[in-house]
Specification:
CATH architecture of the largest domain: 3-Layer(aba) Sandwich
Largest sheet: 8 strands, antiparallel
Strand order of the largest sheet: 4-1-3-2-6-7-5-8
Strand content: 15-25%
Distance between the termini: 27 Å
Helix content: 25-40%
Number of domains: 2
CATH topology of the largest domain: Vanillyl-alcohol Oxidase, Chain A, domain 3
Radius of gyration: 21 Å
Structural class: alpha+beta
Shape: globular
């Protein structure tokens, strides 16, 4: 049994904070939290080109900011979240799941006629009234994701986020008329956990593409993923990707250090499954 912190076994601590279950069994965890507080959430639509141009401005203004690109629409959704002392105004009923399935119906009926699909998508979003809600943090941040999907999310150098989004948009709208799921774009503050996708970055930019769960995601993801490779993009560990051990070794400065710690704690590989053996290049 090892007690790990920044003071005790600090190398194991830095490795274990993102360890993919490969170092051993974590039996107890202490978190440093902040006091319960209220947040204000605002949701609105803007023309996508305008939102791309203003993304950096919005990201600097808000504690949390993300946008959703809607394929075959000229509008994009923006969501900001900030601490507030304003009076409570709870969120209304969740609309996201119905909206996604409505977009799917448009795809089903009009994937063969992109111009009509775009016109109807624009009509559906141009009169959207901005939503505002104020509540305790745990009623503001979570979202109900009842519509199932597969996902591939890559974390990129922050300055490459918007240029890469433009490439993703061009690829989707020229090659993937079957796609309807919104694409999520956000920023994430860097950290120092060895295998964190955000290790060593002040801020990372993230792009997540999705495919409805009954539809094969592999051809779509295989066409989008190469756009990230020249940027040494790091995938979200819990989502789909096709990188190999050599790719990860070139993108994580502490990769070898992690493998050394892993081998010292689990020399017989008892904590490894077939996927982790592939990721780590073992056996």
């Amino acid at each position: 049994v090892l007690d790990c912190s920044r003071q005790n076994n600090p190398e194991i601590f830095d490795a274990a904070r993102v360890s993919l279950g490969s170092l051993g069994v974590i039996t107890q965890l202490s978190l440093q939290n902040v006091a319960t507080h209220n947040l204000k959430r605002r949701v609105w639509f803007e023309p996508i080109e305008q939102l791309i141009e203003r993304f950096d401005e919005y990201a600097a203004q808000h504690q949390s900011f993300e946008m959703y690109y809607l394929p075959f629409s000229d509008q994009a959704m923006a969501i900001s979240i900030d601490p507030t002392d304003e009076p409570l105004r709870p969120r209304g009923a969740e609309q996201d799941n119905d909206a996604v399935m409505g977009i799917k119906k448009l795809r089903d009926y009009l994937s063969w006629f992109p111009a009509a699909r775009r016109k109807l998508m624009n009509l559906a979003t141009e009169d959207y009234e901005p939503e505002e809600a104020v509540d305790v943090w745990n009623r503001i941040f979570p979202s109900n994701r009842a519509v199932r999907f597969n996902e591939m999310e890559y974390h990129l150098p922050r300055e490459q986020l918007m240029p890469t989004l433009r490439k993703v948009r061009e690829r989707v709208e020229s090659q993937h008329h079957e796609e309807f799921f919104p694409i999520e774009i956000r920023t994430v503050k860097g950290d120092d956990a060895w295998l964190s996708p955000f290790y060593g970055h002040a801020v990372s930019g993230s792009i997540a593409v999705h495919r409805y769960y009954v539809e094969d995601p592999l051809p779509y993801f295989a066409d989008i993923e190469p756009l990230y490779q020249p940027l040494a993009g790091r995938p979200h560990w819990g989502k789909m990707n096709t990188l190999k051990a050599a790719d990860f070794a070139s993108r994580y400065p502490k990769w070898k250090d992690f493998l050394d710690v892993r081998a010292s704690l689990d020399p017989d590989g008892r904590m490894l499954n077939p996927y982790l053996k592939q990721v780590f290049g073992i056996g």
